[in-house]
Design a protein that fits this description.
single chain, 804 residues, alpha+beta, Rossmann fold, Isoleucyl-tRNA Synthetase, domain 2, seven-stranded mixed sheet, four-stranded parallel sheet, binds ligand ANZ, binds zinc ion, ATP binding, EC 6.1.1.4, ligase, aminoacyl-tRNA deacylase activity, cytoplasm
């Protein structure tokens, strides 16, 4: 009798898998299956979220391999980004060295978990042989007019010394360091994702294998609004004010106008007037607020009159012009017509500043107070008013998206250099392809002061113009790291290609990713950017599909004591400690068993113990029976008990197969496996147990455990005398005949309460079933003093006896 020595078993099989490159993908003619988990940032230490994410992916990969697919299951590193740079500033460590060491450490930890990656395809976005192609793609975007430079006010964190995206500003503070965010007027690179807004929106409906909530988040993020642009005359001002409204039907209810405080006309309108000073104060005040705050319905509306009046083009009415915090400069036209009777924000503002409120639509949705448009429905008025404005040459129907172009310049060191050289004569010129990659210089200083660290390199900034050869200057910013992750799934397919980012043929063959798995925190940006890249690369002729990920699973968080595990809460459970104490198979089994993948998972020490005990129980069962099952025995006539256990074996096989291939209900699959193991324990104690059935049962148990607990399954497979790897065998199919029951269990109720169970022939008639229930000794004893009112039989399930 041997014990379950997980440490020895796991080490042994990890070595075997590594040596024979068990999970290397070679092109063959099996159907392909591409399973991908979002790659990690190499922080150096794995956490339970990683264990969960990657265990889910590993089950899918191993299962699909056993189902006969050629499975591509790669792993790599999202290796550029701030932490490396912050570590450099703090500890004087070099970001490259820091990152490479972290990658090494994390890879070791992944190997301890026994994930089935094809490590030959590993990519790290910070290595020149990867970012060369990121730069190449940037240039392709540039040549297509999809990368452009623009001056604008951007969120700036003075402590992180970089631009922040709107999502990174929380209550006016930097999400990372809590510093007060300011605005800076900078010239920056943008990618024109707005050109793809409509397609990105339309194609969401094609993503059948995506969670509805993620699709909705993407839709809202793109935020399409149909409305109209209308020009208003301004008194004593030579330009017209263009506004965007989704409700042109309400135009007769306009009682004031609002410009975003940063709107370019504001300065011009108040110049030299009594309003100038107050306006300047107000502008600098709102600049500290994020767009998210400013568009919140909770926002306390604030603003001021700026001394000008606009003329309503339909009514001819003169209305005052305000600036206010709730109007954003870069949405629509940065100016609105305010209709307090029908818009909540305008209503709050009008109440606060005592402005008129005029209703133009009554409760039945019919126009009022609108002159020639009275008595129309608001929908009719919408069309008629837009038509009239159009005839007047001052309005037209327009579509607006909330989606902004993607600001990609970062004033940071540890990122992909932007491959552009500025020439006084030729302007912004892309670096020639043969000169890629533009390598990150090493002689930089991390002072944490001033502009991009790349400016501190002696050599880097100067470069000849690729067009005319004259002295030029390199762009000193690096790219947003979301760019690196917008195409990595393509590089895995052809990771060593040094002629192009990837071969079109191979990518067309392997894509789409059949199953993508990752955290819901990436539900918007990463997925949207990857979809955008895919569409642009398609239009560049580099691939032939529209969407990168056909199925998406967003796994829930790992909680402890009801809260997300985090350093600050001090509730972290270290995966390495769990592996050390119980082994990787137990760690994997627990995260798969404790909750369905999409739900949050509550950490439980007893749960881990339970999984560990279960593996031990399987191990003992196999170990005890190994000699029994190694002999070849003939199948005799099956007894009742034989049939029962075969039913249990094959129905479990069926359930596990369906649970994995359907909605990835690993938890229910594992719990039915646990029941089967219990049944086997009982069965083996029978005097007339059938060795062939024991053998059949053990083989199936080991096989269907293999994707979940791959090390111990491999070991047990060997223990029962099998040659070769369990992970190379075919997933078994269940025996239909074993699922036909000779006998069924029928529940007997009295007045709806369960009072007993009967084993009856499977093909019994309803009448016989009811009769036998009434004749049963126990039941007849219970009802002998009562009067039977009714007997209700549900075939093959239950008999309910209603008595008085
Ligand atoms: C008049 C009106 C009347 C409006 C009404 C709404 C209701 P969505 O759906 O988000 O596109 N708006 C336009 N540009 C804005 C900006 N830069 N900052 C803040 N608000 C802005 O919303 C479009 C509506 O939001 C527009 O339609 C405009 O107010 C406002 F009963 O115009 B509406
Ligand atoms: Zn030049």
């Amino acid at each position: 009798m041997s014990n379950y020595n997980f440490a020895q078993i796991e080490k042994k099989w990890q070595k075997v898998w590594e040596e024979k490159k068990a999970f290397r993908v070679v092109e063959n003619d099996k159907p392909k299956y591409y399973v991908l988990e979002m790659f990690p940032y190499p922080s150096g230490k794995i956490h339970m979220g990683h264990v969960r994410n990657y265990s889910i992916g590993d089950v899918v990969a191993r299962f699909m391999k056993m189902r006969g697919y050629n499975v591509l299951h790669p792993m790599g590193w999202d290796a550029f980004g701030l932490p490396a740079e912050n570590a450099a500033i703090k500890n004087q460590a070099k970001p490259d060295k820091w990152t490479i060491e972290n990658i090494k450490d994390m890879k070791e930890q992944f190997k301890l978990l026994g994930f089935s990656y094809d490590w030959d395809r590993e990519v790290a976005t910070c290595l020149p042989d990867y970012y060369k192609w990121t730069q190449y793609l940037f240039i392709k975007f540039f040549e297509k007019g999809l990368a452009y430079k623009k001056r604008s006010f951007v969120n700036w964190c003075p402590s992180c010394e970089t631009v922040l995206a709107n999502e990174q500003v929380v209550s006016g503070l930097c999400e990372r360091c809590d510093s007060l965010v300011t605005k800076r007027d900078l010239e920056q690179w943008y990618l024109k994702i707005t050109d793809y807004a409509q397609e990105l929106l339309d194609d969401i409906d094609k993503l059948e294998g995506w969670p509805e909530k993620v699709k909705l988040m993407q839709k809202n993020w793109i935020g399409k609004s149909i409305g109209a642009e209308v020009e208003f005359e301004i008194e004593d001002f030579d330009k017209k004010l263009k506004i965007f409204t989704t409700r042109p039907d309400t135009i007769c209810g306009v009682t004031y106008m609002v410009l975003a405080p940063e709107h370019e006309y504001v300065k011009q309108m108040v110049k030299g007037t009594e309003y100038e000073e107050k306006v300047n104060e107000f502008v600098s005040k709102v600049q500290h607020m994020s767009e998210i705050e400013r568009s919140s319905t909770e926002l306390e509306k604030e603003g001021l009159f700026i001394g000008k009046y606009a003329i309503n083009p339909i009514t001819g009415k003169r209305v005052p012009i305000y600036i206010a915090n709730y109007v954003m400069v870069d949405y629509g036209t940065g100016a609105i017509m305010a209709v307090p009777a029908h818009d909540d924000r305008d209503y709050d503002f009008a109440k606060k500043y005592n402005l008129d409120i005029i209703e133009v639509i009554n409760e039945d949705g019919i126009m009022i107070n609108s002159g020639e448009f009275d008595n129309l429905t608001s929908q009719e008025a919408f069309d008629k008013i837009v038509q009239k404005l159009q005839e007047m040459g001052i309005g037209k129907k327009t579509v607006n998206y909330r989606l902004r172009d993607w600001l990609i310049s970062r004033q940071r060191y540890w990122g992909c250099p932007i491959p552009i050289i500025y020439c006084d004569d030729c302007g912004a010129v892309p670096v020639n392809e043969q000169d890629l990659p533009v390598v990150l210089p090493k002689d930089v200083m991390f002072t944490g002061k001033g502009q991009s660290p790349l400016a501190t390199s002696k050599e880097f900034a100067q470069a000849p113009c690729p067009k005319c050869g004259k002295k030029g200057r390199r762009d000193l910013d690096t790219m947003d790291t979301f760019i690196d992750s917008s195409w990595y799934f393509l590089r895995y397919i052809d990771p060593k290609n040094d002629k192009e980012p990837f071969s079109k043929e191979l990518v067309n063959k392997w894509m789409q990713v059949d199953q993508y798995i990752g955290g819901v925190e990436h539900a918007i940006l990463h997925l949207l950017y990857s979809r955008f890249f895919t569409k642009v690369l398609r239009d560049l002729g580099m691939l032939d599909f529209d969407e990168p990920f056909s199925n998406l699973l967003t796994q829930g968080m790992v909680l402890k004591d009801g809260a997300k595990m985090s350093k600050s809460k001090g509730n972290i459970v270290s995966p390495l400690e769990i592996i050390e104490k119980y082994g990787a198979d137990t760690a994997r089994l627990f995260v798969l068993f404790a909750a369905p993948p999409e739900r949050d998972l509550e950490w439980s020490d007893q749960g881990v113990e339970g999984c560990f005990r279960f593996i031990n129980r399987v191990y003992r069962l196999v170990d005890e029976l190994k000699n029994v099952v190694c002999v070849d025995s003939k199948t005799e006539e099956l007894s009742k008990e034989d049939k029962k256990i075969r039913y249990s074996i094959h129905s479990t096989l069926k359930k596990v197969t369906e649970d994995i291939s359907g909605r990835f209900n690993f938890n229910t699959a594992i719990s039915s496996l646990m029941e089967l193991v219990n049944d086997m324990y009982k069965y083996k104690e029978l005097e007339d147990r059938n060795p062939s059935i024991l053998k059949e049962g053990l083989e199936i148990i080991i096989t269907i455990l293999a994707p979940f607990v791959p090390h111990v399954a491999e070991e047990l497979w060997q223990i029962i005398g099998k040659q070769g790897s369990i992970h190379d065998i075919e997933w078994p199919s269940y025996d239909e005949t074993a699922l036909v029951k000779d006998e069924i269990e029928v529940v007997v109720q009295i007045n709806g309460k369960v009072k007993g169970k009967l084993n009856l022939p499977a093909d019994i008639s309803k009448e016989d079933m009811e009769k036998l229930a009434l004749q049963d000794d126990k039941i007849s004893e219970m009802i002998k003093e009562k009067q039977i009112v009714k007997v209700i039989g549900v075939p093959k399930k239950l008999v309910n006896i209603v008595v008085k």
